[in-house]
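Researcher: Quick sanity check before group meeting.
Model: Go ahead. Protein one:
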Amino acid sequence: MSHDVHKVRPFEHPGEGRRRAKATPKGRQVDPTASHEIEQLLGDRPRRRDLLIEYLHLIQDRYHQISAAHLAALADEMKLAFAEVFETATFYAHFDVVKEGEPDIAPLTIRVCDSLTCAMLGGEKLLEDLQSASGPGIRVVRAPCVGR
């Protein structure tokens, strides 16, 4: 019996054609302004993955929100996948992530705990009162307990 019968013939995917498509960078294109801002904000700090949350805090503190452009620039600067940086930022309630096309967040945010204990002690009423009394430039939102 010949071994040629069991040989695997090379297979070219029908969509490949003779020439490969031009290589494009993976992930998002990084906005040069956001890239410069992130570079300046991080300064000479190390670009280690374990510092990601600390750097997200730096962005939040400086800009009072975290834009998609800053997330892409941070991912690029730290050589991390955009998805990893985005998922980390959106996992924590204290980061205010603003997606592309969304309006900027008000300069002042008031967070009211929505835990059962705080609700029993008047948290819902406080939330309603603050939402109705707050003016422009103030955002009142529910938040996980910050006193845990």
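Researcher: Fine. The other one?
Model: Protein two, sequence then structure:
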Amino acid sequence: MSATFPEEFLFATATSAYQVEGAWNEDGKGEHMWDRIAHTKPDMIKNQHNGDVACDSYHLYKEDVKLIKDAGFDVYRFSISWSRILPNGEITSINQKGVDYYHNLIDELLKNDIQPMVTMYHWDLPQKFQDIGGWANPLIVDYMEDYADLLFQQYGDKVKWWITINEPYRISEGYDGIYFVPALKLPSSIKYIVLHNCLRAHGRISRLYNEKYRLQQNGKLSISVDCEYYEGKTESKEDGDAADRATQFQLDILTHPIYSQEGGYPKIVREKLDEISRKEGRKRSKLPEFTKEEIESLKGSNDFFAYNHYTTISCTPKLSQSYNEPTRSENTFEDDTSATVLFNPEFFGDAVCWVKAVPYGLRERLRYIKNTCNNPPIFITESGYCDGGEMNDKDRISYYTEYLKEVLNAMNNYQCNVIGYTAFSLMDNFEWFCGYKVKFGIVHVDFNDEKRKRTPKSSYYFLKKLIKNRAIPPD
């Protein structure tokens, strides 16, 4: 097996706006839902932390670009804060200072031969829209299309990699529990309305780009999906079937509308949710239907497969289940898939971290994507390991070593068309409800320092050497 990556293989690193930018109310930026939660429900966040300053990348973006350049990364994936350029979310409220900030960041990247990969939406919905239901309101699709149109107008001549929405499945979970924003526990049907609206928005933006911008801008567009590798707790058929259902409900529910010939949701997901809806006494399925126009706009709407992957989870059948909404468990995913998901205690991971290092899971998931989605070009748009902040972060180096070996394994032995890998994240940042306790960065940030001093960790230098040689270091 070749131990080297092709010259055209792209190495990337990534952040997202709320996790690093800070400047939460500067230069005309509007409030978004993470601002609201951090300021009104601080107890939900570890140590009552917030992203008001975070890494202060709004002011220190040139330092960030220098770190990216010095490491040799080809691509920097970052997100645009919707409310920074449209303070109330609508196209009528363009904030020029916010628009200029992203122009400056993009120009600085291009000046240093770094390709920008822009995520339009990474979990920071303008609060004005959350006040009217957020992603559960079908009007969000119109607002998102207007927002995307502005981004294409402003940055499309310079940005050639676009991701419309980051992890629609996690967005939907924010309406079904407390682990993702907006942290609401609503009826179980709402999460499917949210997921449906995310897909509708992606399809609409893809059509907009094709009709108005693609010919002159010639960029690539995708929606970023995440999925662990699900495997049976044992080798029994029952456990294997539970793992397959979990995959169908998290991954295929998003990829089937885009990559299948017939479009729409996967048959197993449609039939199971229709059946559950009848048992719950609903008059219609809680999994909405696409219109014919939406089906067509979604089919083939990805130019590449943007995939986020961190870990592997075991599955076994869930034996008991309630179909009475008020008595359903906190985990709708387990109810609807009839699969109990759990971490194998034998998997390695840091005590503060939910990521367990299971390298073969990435290889197997890449093979699955190849086989079910017609072998698309796959850009791994997030992958990484969290710990307590060690500078000599040997476990993170081990994670990247073994996971990248499996990327090569998938490419060389199974002909998976992997075109890039993204180390998440560039630097320690605000890690959502974990605050600053959990660290994913290859660069340390001193959050007690007003200047937010950045210091590369051992993993930074490891990746720098790897990228320079296009090969995993033998030592």
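Researcher: One line on it for the slide.
Model: The mean pLDDT is 96.
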